[in-house]
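__Record contents__

***
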Amino acid sequence: MLARIVRDPRTERVILGLIIFNAITLGLETSPSVMARYGGLLHAVDQAVLVVFVAEILARIAVHRLSFFRDPWSLFDFFVVAISIVPATESLTVLRALRILRILRLITAIPSLRRVVGGLVGALPGMGSILLLLLLIFYVFSVMAAKLFGASKPELFGDLGTAAYTLFQVMTFDDWSAGVVKPLMEEHPYAALFFIVFILLSTFMVLNLFIGVVVSALDEESAADAPKLTRPAGLDERILAELSALRAEVAALRERMAEKA
């Protein structure tokens, strides 16, 4: 009976609703006026929802047993709920703020979100090599910028770290033209060419490679889940039942033929 309750779609919908409701109440707790009037009620609601989450996790552990701890999504749910149980003392007040992590359980509750996160995780190996390429581009251009423009603009390119931070600002288009390039062009008229090449390499080429890797990983994740999505529920059980019935009919026919013989 416990397994039926855990696997019942209505249970999943109730948990999903509680996750969204709890996220709203946690947001209301950030308002001093709301806490002054309804602080006790919100705290009681939060504790009640936490009790439901703990009971749901314990029920899933009882049903799935060791297989629960082999499922990464189940471990994620367990970790999020476990953080909420830890008492938030004065030295661990950050744990109280981490209660909002409960809303991340939406990732495991909504299959489409789970596929997106699975695709992002699958893209990490490919993103590592692209990140290394981006770091190499940053290092080369940071050294060049410090050598070329460090003397005239030390606040922007005085050393390697400062130059790298300024180039990151340029890469994100944060006031890069009026705040960085145009003042620099007063002493270095051709500085714009340096930054245009950097933007083409870092922003338009490398970051688009990131997007390509992520899209490819999402496609693979969707393709892997496609058979699961199109396969009718209970198909294996129906096939086994039909095979058992067919075997019984064949056995009965053999008995009749043996009696006639």
Observations:
- The CA atoms of residues 80 and 86 lie 11 Å apart.
- Confidence is low (pLDDT under 50) at residues 229-233.
- The domain at 114-230 is CATH 1.10.287.70 (Helix Hairpins).
- DSSP finds twelve helices and no strands in the chain.
